[in-house]
Write a structure and sequence with these properties.
- The complex is a heterodimer of chains A (about 250) and B (about 350).
- Chain A is of the alpha/beta class and about 250 residues long.
- Chain A contains 12 helices and 10 strands.
- Chain A has a 6-stranded mixed beta sheet with strand order 6-7-8-3-9-10, with helices on both faces.
- The longest helix of chain A is centred in the C-terminal third of the chain and has 14 residues.
- In chain B, helix 1 packs antiparallel against helix 10.
- Chain B has one domain.
- The radius of gyration of chain B is 21 Å and the shape is globular.
- The chains are: A alpha/beta (about 250), B mainly alpha (about 350).
- Chain B: This is Branched-chain amino acid ABC transporter permease.
- Chain B: It is a multi-pass membrane protein.
Chain lengths: ~250, ~350
């Protein structure tokens, strides 16, 4: 169970002279959900992009025991990593079905026969995508788009799924549904690295958590413990913090 | 102008329009996938027609040597790139992958050239040679600078255009060629006689457009190319590499150009530099479609074909001037009509 899937050690990412991530180390074990929380601009998205190879970085990135630091994004996809970015990056002018099918592009190249079956599984997971399969992706609502982005990612049968703010811009009820879907994914054997501003929800569905501040890992621990940590509560879990402020006055 | 001339010109317009449709499709495809405004598209047309003409004479076309030379350069570039990345272990395999297909194709062409095969086999040889040229041009001239601005890519495209025209002069000489028609038939149609070759052009263009529609609409690789054109980042995230897509797009564009050249070879005399003007008309058609819409580009191609044909009757010396001037009001209309969205990138 605790076999290491992703090991990021001393990762540095810089935009020109600005250091966006400094010596960040995080690990994801097989079959677990790991969340990274932190304020705006802490470098959460940068971290995911660096792991996916969208941004250049220095330091060690090991996936399934092999150093993948030199691989291109496409090669990392072929190795079983998949990123659902905050902007979803769907093919808006193509149909829902085409979007899903393209998610399996690397499997198709490998001659994988199970693509049709994966498509059925995704439709089973998100019945709404089945209803809308001939519609253009650009015509979907926000929640449906997130489902499509998730579905497209799942079509690549990833070992590690990285989600950047899956709840961003969605109505609370839909957020609940999406997060419920994500925690259910664990049973399919996929490991998840989740980035969320909605820290409470992220810690609820994850096993382990990291707090990223100014490009640094400021704290880490089991999600249950983090959720009860006074500092985390004050800075990220809202309500409690507000109450404490009032007390001080 | 009487009705016979009118119909004759209409037939011309359709024949040329069909070719411009094909070239416009290739231009849009390359621009969408790689952001390159591919000026040398017409050179594939000239190389197609002239390679076939040389094979007809039982000689080895210069295209064979160009393919070999570009393959060697591409292999060296690939080896250097891998060396710099520090993965020298992968060099032999990569070099073999780069060299093998072009060498096989040019080898077959070299052996078969003096055999005086029948027209069908020669067409096949020509298509194989010129189609191989496409990905090689992409690998050598564009892939190393694939991430630069559209302007830089355009400048490189112009350079490739000059290089290919110069090479065509070297390979095929300054003389023009006309390849034999696929069909000598003359079909009377009322007052009009339709040549068998025109029918070939219509049928082949329509068949090929149908094939392309199937490729882009139904196959995984076709959809992948469209995906890259729509959303480059999204395509990378599902594992479609830009260089794979670029290679595929250039192969298709070269194939389209070559087929166009073979189709019009029997109708017009093709010189080493004829490709440019033909390609430019395909480009003008593509512009009507905003370098993005295939159906509108097809309409634009027919418009260009019709304008060209009728202006050649009244203003034969200025027919190209008329064609390209016509693009100005179209562009004006498009620019007034277009709504600017925020830049997506």
């Amino acid at each position: 169970m605790s076999e290491r899937l992703l090991a990021v050690s001393d990762l540095n990412v810089r935009y020109g002279k600005v250091e966006a991530i400094y010596k960040a180390s995080i690990n994801v074990d097989r079959g677990t959900i790991v969340s990274v929380i932190g304020p705006n601009g802490a470098g959460k998205t940068t971290l995911l992009n660096a792991i996916m190879g969208v941004l250049p970085s220095q330091g060690g990135i090991e996936f399934c025991g092999a150093n993948i630091g030199r691989l291109t994004t496409e090669q990392r996809v072929a190795k079983g990593m998949c990123l659902v970015p905050e902007s979803r990056e769907l093919f808006a002018q193509m149909s829902v079905a085409d979007n899903l099918e393209l998610g399996a592009f690397t499997r198709y190249r490998r001659g994988d026969k199970g693509i049709k079956q994966s498509l059925d599984e995704v439709y089973e997971l998100f019945p709404r995508l089945l209803e809308r399969r001939t519609q253009l992706a650009g015509s979907l609502s926000g929640g449906e788009r997130q489902m499509l982005a998730l579905g497209r990612a799942l079509m690549s049968k990833p070992t590690l799924l990285m989600l950047d703010e899956p709840s961003l811009g969605l109505a609370p009820l839909i957020v609940k549904e999406i997060l419920h879907n994500i925690s259910n994914l664990r049973s399919t054997g996929v490991s998840i690295l989740l980035i969320e501003q909605n820290a409470r929800a992220a810690l609820q569905i994850s096993d382990y958590g990291y707090v990223l501040e100014n490009g640094d890992i400021a704290m880490e621990g089991l999600s249950k413990e983090l959720a009860n940590d006074p500092k985390v509560i004050e800075s990220y879990l809202g309500m409690g913090g507000a109450g404490q402020d009032r007390d001080k006055k | 102008m009487d009705s016979t001339i009118f119909l004759l010109l209409a037939q011309d317009a359709l024949t040329n329009g069909a070719i411009y449709i094909l070239l416009a499709l290739a231009t849009i495809l390359i621009f969408g996938v790689t952001r390159i405004i591919f000026i040398p598209q017409g050179e594939f047309v000239a190389f197609g027609a002239l390679t076939l003409a040389t094979l007809q004479m039982g000689e080895v076309p210069g295209t064979v040597w160009l393919v070999v030379a570009l393959a060697v350069v591409a292999a060296i570039m690939e080896a250097y790139r891998l060396l710099r990345m520090g993965v020298s272990r992968e060099i032999p395999a990569a070099v073999a992958r780069t060299l093998a297909p072009p060498l096989v194709v040019s080898g077959i062409a070299y052996v078969c050239a003096p055999l005086n095969l029948n027209l069908g086999w020669q067409v096949l040889l020509t298509v194989m040679l010129v189609t191989t040229l496409g990905p090689l041009v992409y690998r050598v001239a564009f892939r190393p600078i694939a991430d630069t601005s559209v302007l830089n890519l355009l400048i490189a495209a112009v350079a490739v255009h000059f290089a290919l025209v110069g090479l065509a002069l070297l390979f095929f000489g300054a003389e023009g060629f006309r390849t034999p028609a696929f069909s000598e038939a003359q079909i009377p149609l009322g007052v009009l006689t339709v040549s068998g070759q025109s029918i070939w052009v219509y049928v082949m263009s329509i068949a090929f457009i149908g094939l392309l529609a199937y490729f882009f609409g139904r196959t995984m690789y076709g959809k992948a190319l469209r995906a890259v054109a729509f959303n480059r980042n999204g395509a990378r995230l599902v594992g479609i590499s830009p260089s794979l897509a670029g290679t595929l797009a250039f192969a298709l564009a070269a194939l389209i150009g070559c087929l166009s050249g073979i189709l019009i070879g029997p109708i017009t005399t093709i010189y080493y530099d004829s490709g440019f003007l033909i390609g430019l008309k395909g480009f003008a058609s593509a512009i009507v479609g905003g370098l993005a819409s295939y159906p509108m580009a097809a309409g634009g191609a027919l418009l260009v074909g019709i304008t060209e044909s009728y202006s050649s009757f009244w203003l034969s010396a200025y027919k190209d001037v008329v064609v390209f001037t016509l693009i100005i009001p179209v562009l004006l209309w498009l620019s007034l009509r277009s709504v600017h969205f925020e830049e997506e990138e």
